[in-house]
Specification:
four-stranded mixed beta sheet, seven-stranded mixed beta sheet, alpha+beta, 459 residues, disordered N terminus
């Protein structure tokens, strides 16, 4: 049995939940191992559980592929722990805790079981494109320290550290911070290499592989020395073969074979020296492309493009078309349409900051209303609420009325079951604004499902 313990740290865009963990049991033929998944944020845990449901249904020979046995989640500074309560309503309170993961690592480390797979994340608000460059503090920002909680779990486990790692973040991580392009990712790669891992990564846009939302995220997978995957990579005569066709990520998400030459370089020095000196010549572009692998601190990286010709799910396939099933508050009032049109439109205008500084502001127009014949735009954390916004989704109904998307539709865009976030513990109703916020933080479940299936085929 493979026990996967999924632990969640605070992660992603503004206010991502702080600590979530679960343990999943994996059973494959006579293969028997313990597996711990330390997953960041609440949305990941739901994604994993959703995938578990699919895997259990699709893989008859692996009927107990993943079974959750431990979980913890904590959102700092909140009286009501919405994420934890939604989790326990669906999956129960057994072996579930609600504590700061940093406190757990420092004071209750023995409660984290040995494991083979750590799935996790760390705050990306400092890197997010939703914020301006001068706010992007990167790994040494206030929230960036949580990366070191992941590192410390791996480091403190020593010889019992997991054989596999799966991490996720916004794609801007590859080029953060703006004054030292790629420094933060270089620190991460070097620290994982020093712990004995080969690491590969890929920026995946879910819509490129037929999923209903255009959501770009970087997925990072690590393979510990002497693991089966590590040894397979070491045996490859050409690293490009792993990147393009033989690798765990390549098997899940194929890329076109028109190969570009790999960029190769070494990450040298201590972590402190990397932090101080990496990209100090201020390059305009990060040395890390959207696809790559690091072996013994040597980086091989290249720009790739998706190779997919299958079925595509569009926004029109997800939304509810029967207007009688849409609550009145989701329709945009006639008197508000001018404000919505202004915010969605292009503009060039003089503005003044709070300090009195005057400047010229410009931005291009957005499609308004949203196209139903394409995958949706990326869901953001501010998707909920009735106030006009540039970034909220607005669609036109068959009768010509404009409306916002409902929480159930946002769940579908992330491939969650309908009303997955509707109820908290004691059957309390989750506020719609919080449901939308959670979906703005969530992953597209189908991506996690495919990566999980691919990895299981290498075990």
């Amino acid at each position: 049995m493979l026990n996967i313990s999924i632990n969640f740290f605070r992660l992603f865009l503004s206010g991502r939940i702080k600590s979530e963990s679960c343990v999943i049991r994996y059973d494959r033929a006579s293969f028997s191992v313990e597996l711990l998944l330390l997953v960041s944020v609440y949305d990941c845990v739901l994604a994993i559980h959703r995938s578990y449901t699919i895997w259990k249904k699709d893989l008859d020979q692996n009927k107990n592929l993943y079974e959750t046995v431990w979980s913890s989640q904590w959102e700092p500074g909140k009286t009501t722990q919405h994420a934890s309560q939604i989790y326990t309503h669906i999956f129960g309170t057994t072996n579930h805790s609600c504590k700061d993961i940093q406190e757990v690592v420092e004071k209750e480390f023995d409660t984290i079981p040995n494991h083979d797979l750590l799935v996790g994340g760390f705050p990306c608000q400092d890197y997010s494109v939703a914020r301006t460059l001068n706010q992007a503090k990167g790994i040494y920002g206030k929230k960036g320290v949580l990366w070191w909680s992941i590192f410390n779990i791996l480091n403190k486990k020593c010889k019992d550290s997991p054989s596999f790692i799966l991490l996720e973040n916004v794609d801007r991580l590859l080029k953060s911070p703006s004054e030292q392009r790629g420094r933060d990712f270089a620190v991460m790669l070097a620290s994982l290499s020093d712990l004995g891992y080969i690491v590969e990564w890929r920026v995946i846009n879910a819509a490129d592989y037929g999923f209903p939302q255009r959501r770009r995220r970087v997925f990072i997978m690590g393979y510990k020395k002497d693991s089966k995957v590590y040894n397979l990579i070491k045996k490859e005569k050409e690293v490009a073969n792993w990147i393009y066709k033989n690798g765990v990520i390549a098997k899940a998400f194929p890329v076109k074979e028109c190969r570009e030459e790999l960029r190769k370089f070494n990450i040298e020095g201590s972590l402190g020296e990397i932090s101080e000196k990496f990209s100090t010549h201020k390059p305009s572009k990060s040395p890390f492309e959207i696809t790559g692998i690091m072996i013994d601190r040597k980086v091989h990286t290249v720009k790739t493009s998706a190779d997919y010709n299958g079925k595509r799910t569009l926004l029109q396939d997800v939304v509810i078309h029967d207007e009688t099933k849409i609550p009145a508050e989701f329709f945009i009032k006639d008197e508000e349409q001018i404000k919505w049109t202004y915010l969605k439109g292009g503009k060039k205008e003089a503005r003044k900051s709070k300090s009195g500084f005057e400047y010229n502001y410009s931005e291009g127009p957005m499609i308004f209303p949203d196209s139903l014949d394409k995958p949706s735009r990326t869901i953001v954390t501010g998707e909920g609420g009735s106030s006009p916004s540039r970034f909220k989704h607005v669609i036109k109904t068959q009768s010509g009325r404009l409306r916002r998307l409902m929480p159930i539709e946002l769940e579908r865009l992330n491939m969650f079951p309908d009303n997955h976030t509707k109820y908290m513990s004691d059957v309390k109703i989750t506020p719609d604004v919080k449901r939308a916020f959670i979906m703005g933080n969530a992953l597209v479940v189908g991506v996690i499902e495919k990566l999980g299936k691919s990895l299981s085929n290498f075990m």
